[in-house]
Design a protein that fits this description.
Number of strands: 0
Largest sheet: none
Distance between the termini: 29 Å
Helix content: 55-70%
Radius of gyration: 19 Å
Strand content: under 5%
């Protein structure tokens, strides 16, 4: 991700925001295909590389796009306002459980898909 920001961080200034965002989304899809079709470490490394490059391109171009689309008087608050407008996807529990690192956990709903890779 850092390499993408350093190498291609200004691509959206030259090519435009939309083409860079679309390319980054395409890299993200290719990354997912690599992870889904993984048959060993090489494809996982390629998927991870594509994922990181996609994230770098998306974070750079999307941040600038949000700032540019915001009214001038709200530039300082643009990212904050977008974040505040997002719906919460987690239901808060009361009382709040203690916050602790959980380590490596595979969610129950994905264990079936992951089990085949553990047997290799």
């Amino acid at each position: 991700m850092i390499a993408a920001l350093l190498v291609a961080g200004d691509f959206s200034d030259v090519l435009g925001r939309r083409p860079v965002l679309m390319f980054a989304l395409g890299l993200s899809v290719l990354s997912a295909v690599c992870f889904l079709g993984e048959s060993g470490l090489p494809l996982l490394f390629v998927g991870r590389l594509l994922s990181g490059f996609s994230a770098g391109l998306l974070s750079g171009a999307a941040t600038v796009a949000v700032l540019e689309l915001a009214p001038p008087q709200l530039h300082g608050w643009a990212a904050f306002a977008v974040t505040c407008a997002l719906p919460e996807t987690v239901t808060r529990r009361t009382p709040r459980p203690p916050l602790r690192p959980q380590g490596m956990v595979v969610p129950q709903q994905t264990r079936g898909a992951s089990a085949s890779t553990w047997k290799r």
